[in-house]
Input
Amino acid sequence: MAEPEPEPEMMTEPEPVAMPATPEEEIMSMDGTAYAVQVTAMNDMASMRRYQSRFGLEDLTAVKTERNGSVIYVLLSLQPDRASANAAAADLESKTGAKPWVRSVAGLQKIVAQ
Output
């Protein structure tokens, strides 16, 4: 007598990994010991997008912050450590002609608008 064919194994979908939905959530979920290189700050997102396009910085993160009751959008390059942030700042300065500000993510998290 022949053995019955085994039942096909049930394929289960992998659990989805929760990704931050917004740049602000991404910043808030980061380890505070990481660094951000702030390239510029502007009052509106449309101006920020034009700036990004002008300098080819579309891969950087634009984040909404609040300072003294005003909304300000900051353009950031997120880096794991100070050395990487300093290198990114030098590269961004050569691209834009402006001197970026290297800051801790912990400091940035204090002003991110949620």
